[in-house]
Amino acid sequence: MRDFTIAVLLIIGIQSFAQKERELIGCASIYEHRVFMSITEVSNINYREFLHFQEEKGFDISTLLPDTTCWRQKGSYNEPYVDYYFRHPAYNDYPIVGITKDQAEAFCSWLSIVLTDSYRKNEKSDIDSVVVRLPLKQEWIDAAKGGNDYYEYPWKGHSLRWEEGKFQGMFRLNCIRNRGDYMGVAGSLNDNADVTAPVKSYWPNDYGLYNCVGNVAEMIADEDVAMGGSWNSYGNDVKVTSEMRAIEPAANIGFRYLVEVVRLKPEKSKPLVIDRKFVKRNLVKVDSIIVSKYEVTNQLYNLFLEETGRQKQDSTLWDNLFIYSNWYTCNYRWQAKYQNYPAVCITQNDIKEFSKWMTKKLQPYYDDQIVVDLPTEQEWEYLARGGLTISPYPWGGPYIRNVKGCLLANFKYVPSSFETRSPQGEYGVVYPSGRHSMFGADLDGALACAAVDTYHPNGYGLYNMAGNVRELVKDTDLYSKGGGWNSIDYFVQITSKEEITKIPGPDIGFRFVVRVKR
Questions:
Q1: Are residues 331 and 259 in the same domain?
Q2: Which of the two residues, 381 and 488, has the higher pLDDT score?
Q3: CATH label of the domain that carries residue 101
Q4: Are 448 and 328 in contact (CB under 8 A)?
Q5: Which of 44, 249, 446, 480 could hold 450 in an S-S bridge, CB 3.0 to 4.6 Å?
Q6: Number of neighbouring beta carbons within 10 Å of residue 363
Q7: Are 237 and 229 in contact (CB under 8 A)?
Q8: Which of 374, 85, 396 is nearest to 252 (CA)?
Q9: Are 62 and 51 in contact, with CB atoms under 8 Å apart?
């Protein structure tokens, strides 16, 4: 279900500004949306590169310098680290420490500019712009587990050492065994690090990420904690859910960054032509009703906008709806890959104008006078049944999954363990800490809208009469039919009505019928 493609990003080199390759691996990529996590913690040389860039631009870097005095501890002599850890070339590939969250976010902002510029200059890349940021807590945990939901460490099992094979007995991470014992005993049981270790030490998890636990605890965006434990944490405190406070700069706290692709470059798509082939491919006659097999697509609606010059939809309605929803703000309406997805964020007045335009486009292919319109509620329910009489769903039967357990429509799946009932019997949903409101929504194959020909058609050959987008019906703006990607399963039943609180919306679309004038 997820795309774990390795991407190569270009970063400016600190010495000569020659470009060098740096790998990032996908850790939270959901279908078309791309999110990548750095395979290592940010190193000293990475951070010095950032500072060098600021100096070249004439900025004062005094507020961006790490606090190297964080190495001073009672009862230990760490002055060499104070003097050399950040600056000396021997520590180039060691994780940056002693910085604040604000400094880490400043690094991310700089890298956003560098990577965006690199992608725009790369003609082979389809990426236009990215945002680099600290990961959210749940993103960090998911990445650290490497796609294995029930792991407590980035590897299988409960041991800090390899339990078999040629590495048997060797520590998998950099942590403390006992008080004052930072390296372990001599030989293969040694973790080879008294404090931090190079960022690419030990073995990566199943996503290819190094040192997700141990070495340095890693800052996150949404809380003032650092995750995963560090070089001076005990074994029970280096799990993927381990937290420590991250308020002040510390010698055991660093960070890794997440890269979120926010916009793709424009792509040319094949122009849509409304002709006899279009009519045959997209319309079906059910008794006396001629109806579109599909919800109106972006491609068809964009043709309407192009030919009429009407104002485009307000794509900002996607903003901050759920995690990664801003991807749809930037890409959904116009990107070629979304041409076969349902048009949303459309006003009722625009639908009326679309219907007039569509009537003129289809009239040459019918002998009688026609009019394109929204279906009435009665028509919609009749069409949704697909010839069945008592089934609550367009596919027949009382279930929302097939025999293999796959969901049969695109809606907001809520795990039953999250559902609640008040003493008065009122339905509610409570999401556990760290789980956002769209958790489980992608189990049907789509986080938001899916292509209009996704899933199986009903008995009349009509697609997505349940789920995908809530469909408008004629003569009412109080409710929609069929449910959508953001609707719970109750509303994908044929007879259900879902209240409309606001039109337009990113989960509301429509399909049309063609009526012959009598």
A1: no
A2: 381
A3: 3.90.1580.10
A4: yes
A5: 446
A6: 14
A7: yes
A8: 85
A9: no
